[in-house]
Structure formats: structure tokens, C-alpha cells
Design a protein that fits this description.
Layout: H1 2-7, H2 10-22, H3 33-61, H4 67-77, H5 79-134, E1 146-149, H6 151-158, H7 170-193, H8 203-229, E2 231-233, H9 250-270, H10 276-290, H11 296-306
Amino acid sequence: MSQEKLRRTPYQSKVRWLYSWVHPTPEGWVTTDWYKKWLDFSSLSILIAILTCGITGWFDFGFSWSLKGINKSVFEVLKLPVGIATAELAVLALMVSNYRAAQQQRQITASESHNNFTNYFKHRDYLEEKLNGLKRDQHSHPHSILKSFDIDRIHLNAFPGAKTGDLSCLDFFSDACALYNKAHRIIENVNIKQESFPDAKKTANELLQLSLEVRDQIILEINGFGFKHGLTFSNPNRFSVPENYPKESTELFHIQTFLHMVAEIISKIISCGFTDESLSQQEAIQNLGKKMAWNMSRYLELAPMKN
């Protein structure tokens, strides 16, 4: 630092001095070298001005302890040094005020940082508790599809701004919406293909083969989503199929039920945002999970026509 100062030209030093006045340090003017020099200079200049003017004035006009003599000394002889002292004290008060404001701002920033740090781990523990409540367990949750989770990854991906107090999860929500939109497009392809099953006698078999393909594609998409965000899902369980479902559509029912259960887990994660935005996102994911993309009623209409 000292070598850098030695290398500066007089012009550079003046520019640096002016810059320190216009752009003080984050801690305020009080901590700058210029302020310390100003404090020493102002104190010395006040003392010298008062002594010089006082001694000179008293030699010229004489000093008297009478009321008239004291008034003359204060209001005439010492008028200039007192004015200088008043101006310098005003500047000094401004600097001290700036220093206090800077110190207060630093304390507020440190307090906010500490609060964000504490709240970050509290929120992480809360999310972990929520997911543990949804995790598959042979006794309490034997039918849950959440096999395991990486709390660090899911918390970082779902709430990337949690360290600064921002609990929005827009990216996680966008990924979930993309997952469901793609899954629905895959299932809707069944609606298109069932219109043109070639052989009436093989209608059921065609739907079964198509359902297996759809199941594999959607499970692959869900596993990819889970891997990215630290969630591991078990394969679709053999859920009880309603009686009105054709036997050949069992796999379609399983995969749509699976999508619905995954949506419930995603919505629980989003709900940890505790904002109005997260509530609307939670509702949107739940609606996507409940959507039955396969048109079963149309299939039941086509099946008799082809048999």
C-alpha cells in the first residue's frame, strides 16, 4: 500500500482525494484517510486561528475585563476564528452523522444476513419434515410412491433463492408443468391412434400394447424429472381399477393415477413457498395431475363398432 502511494503523481493524489469525497467508502467518510487528516487539520486550525486573532486583537485594542471589553473581544476580535470554528464543526457533525448512518446500515445488513441464514436452515428442515411425511413406509405409508429424496438437491432446485429469503420456486414449477404437458401429449396420442385400429378383433390387444408403450415413456419422463430434482419414485403400484374400465386399459389407469400422486408430492413441495404465488402454482399442478387425458368414453364407443 505504501509503495503504491509513493508511485502516485501529485495529480493522481489530487484526483484520488476528490474521488474519496464524492465516493466515500461503504463505511462512510469517517473511515477515509481524508477525514482523519481533516479532523487533525480542523482542530489545529481552530486553535491557531483563535490564538492568532486573539493575541493580535488584544495587542491592537487592548483587553479589558469590563463588559464592554469582553463584548469587543468576542464579537469583534474573535468573530473570524469563531466563524471558522463553527463552519468546521458543522462539517464535522455532517461526517459523524454519515458515519452513524453507515454503521447503522451495516448492522441492519448483518442482521438481515443472520436472519436469512437461520431461516434458510429452518425452511430446509421444514421441507425435509414434509417429504418424510410423504415418503414410502411399510407401516405408515405403504402405498406412497416417494421412495427417497435428496434434501439438499430438492431444496436448492425448488427454492434457489432461499439463502436470501426468496422462497419463490418458479423454475421448479415450470419443470413440473413441462413434465405434465409432455405426459398428456403422450397419452393424447392414444386418442388419435385408437381411431384407426386396423383390425376389429385386435382392438383390445392394440390398446394394451399402446398402453404399455405410453407407460414406459411417461415413467422415463418422471424418473428424469425426479433425478434432476433429487426425488426417487417407485414404479406405479397396482392400484385398484374401477369396474367401468376395460381390462385392456389397466396400464393407462395406472399411469394416470401415478401422475396424480406425483402431482400431490410436487404440490406439497411448492406449498412450502408460503406465498400467494405458490398457492396458485400448487392448485395448477394439482389440476394437471387430475386431468384424465385418455378419452375412455370414445374408446368404448369405438370398440362395439369394430367388434
